[in-house]
Protein: Pectin acetylesterase
Organism: Populus trichocarpa
Amino acid sequence: MMTLYLWLGFMYGLMMCSLTWKCVNCFEFEHSQPLPLQDWNNNVTYKAAAEAFAYAYARRTPPLMVGLTLVNAAASKGAVCLDGSLPGYHIHRGYGSGANSWLVQLEGGGWCNSIRKCVFSKKTRHGSSHYMEKQIPFEGILSNKAEENPDFYNWNRVKVRYCDGGSFSGDSQNEAAQLYFRGQRIWSVVMEDLMSKGMRYANQALLSGCSAGGLASILHCDEFRHLFPRTARVKCLSDAGLFLDVPDISGWRTLRYMFAGVVTLQGMQKNLPQGCTKRFNPIMCFFPQRSIASVRTPLFLVNTAYDTWQIQVSLAPASADHHGNWNGCRKNYARCTGSQISFLQGFRNQMLYAVRGFSRLKKNGLFINSCFAHCQTERQDTWFSPGSPHIKSKGIAESVGNWYFDRAVIMAIDCPYPCDHTCHHLVFK
């Protein structure tokens, strides 16, 4: 019967990704420690978890739905969303061996770099808690099922909603437009609220985030570490947060222009890592490639070498594609010409160059795969499932877990596209 479940799980992998054979020409730097077969952290090995996942998928168990909690004390401290509404988060309590372990996930959602864009954002869930879902599914790294999330399933798991448009780092306002840029205050008040609800007793903690939240997890990493005693194991994870300051297809630095507007409009200069701002213009320190060098807390970067958000918005945006030559490639990697793939290979090379110093520190970790995707830790099919993305023999969940619990030093870098056949590529209509 288990063979049948494993077969069903494999077929699920075939459906969820474009190709499922493993990459055999990848580079992976890993110093492994001998591991007991039966118990890594929560008495679940990855082999057993894979079997359990296949069984669970055969039963099609629905994800856990978690309700929204608003921080009522936030208003008195000016810690409000773009429209002045209360910030919020979703929390599911841990138990057993994870009762005193906390995973805090910062939501992403882009940035607003002008009054016009921020006025638009404040009428969406990324600018107002009035528009946020009252319940959201906890999947991937937030899942409460051991077979879907072997290392963190029974931790206290929190999803902090994103409603400031500035990666939780701004502190200003625009009275004329009735806009509040209070990301730094939201960060502080949410952390205070969580500490009062038991996070102060944590002996293990992980700050994570995706996209703009992945950038925020880098910017706030050391602040998060300082919330806990030195005896606690505290680390940070950034998923799809490695935004690069590189020229677009026209030679213009589109993302630098965008980030300049965000940093200036939201008054975040004083809130960015001082180790970086002492050396660079604050705008430059909003780019992770410069700020990661000043992060002292152990940090893991999960990123695709061909990040679809960066391709669409900062590398080949419509504003730089005057003749529409990149229209097809932007939406579907299979439509990219040879010269366009060469341009994207150059972007990959710049990403690897940006993390060269970071990768020399064994406290840090890397998982850079050669997929056309954006955010891989929050989706179950990419975080941990039969057929999920791998570099050599390790998937994302296992790599993050091995790094967090010091089971191995993980510096996994994929071979260039198109060698990796485990990818779950994103195709846009």
Observations:
- The first strand starts at residue 27 and ends at 32.
- The chain has one domain: 63-413.
- Residues 1-43 have pLDDT under 50 and may be disordered.
